[in-house]
Amino acid sequence: MSEMDSDSWLVGFDATGNVLAGEDPAAGDPSTEGGAGADSGERGSAMRVVFMGTPEFALGSLRALDRAEKVDVAAVVTRPDAVSGRGRTPQPSPVKRYALQAGIPVIETKTLRTPEVQDEIRALAPDVIAVTAYGAIIPDEVLRMPTMGCVNVHASLLPRWRGAAPIQRAILAGDPLVGFSIMKVGHELDAGPWCEQSGFAPGEHTFDEVSARLSAMGGDTLADVLVRWWEGDAPSWNVQDPDRATYAEKVSKAEMRLSPADGVVANARRVFASSDAAPARWVVAGRGVRVTRAHVPQGGEGAPELGAGEAAAVDGRLFLGCSEPADGSPADAPASLEVLEVRPDGGREMGAAAFVAGIHDRSDMTWEALA
Length: 371
Description:
alpha/beta, elongated, single chain, Methionyl-tRNA Fmet Formyltransferase, Chain A, domain 2, 2 domains, 9 helices
């Protein structure tokens, strides 16, 4: 399923519930400050925005703000170039690359706590600081600089999945929806009030596909919220219920290893949530392999019935036997996971048929968890 039909998997949310009405949920918290006086008086022709972001996910927000009318991206703040690749050469962040191409001034810094960096941002006189996956703590001194506050695109339906890996955690947990929230930044991690949310059912789409979709959706919504706010239509901010909050810890490589001791669904979710930093890997015919795309077969799809740890190649298709079938599956549904695309260790990505063709002895194939 490499193509995405946005109409078939998009679900919207109304952000008018639980509207703040003279409430002060966290006195002194920057997420509840700023913007009160910014909704009155004369304004310039464009909102001055300082954007903070670093990875690919942040590009959806930066692009949307850069092309939005009545928004002036005064500067981009991003993390310094990171060493990567076989040559171990410094590589600029995706946000830095875009900003340089678009002629937007760039501030590179590991921390926002130094007086020099804070003076640079203060001199820009931002109306709003917009944040998407910047990658460092934003101190209160910076949060209080913009007259209208600091607004963030967070990749979850808050208060669920605050923290570093919300998309992957939602996929691994089998959440029916993934999504994003437009929220104010405050003291506590991802705990500020939100004004807009939207989400969709991830199905069997990969982490990269889901992330790209949320990046674009979140960026467009962020730009729309800020433009409307600038024009006098202030957002209605909804306080998060802390009792419903969950934390999205960073995903480790170990927990993404496929295992025949686990069921079809658990292994499939690892594949769907797989990333370059934490790939879904297994061993078949003595070879370490990353699975990049998979499918949970239902009854009648031609999947063989396999025992846990068995593997089978059927007409160019590759199946792995797991400990149990998917919950609620038809009675004839096998406990088999279909592997669609793989990347052998040290090799290129390929379809299952090409990979199977390279296995000379396909009789009595087995698979196992990576040691």
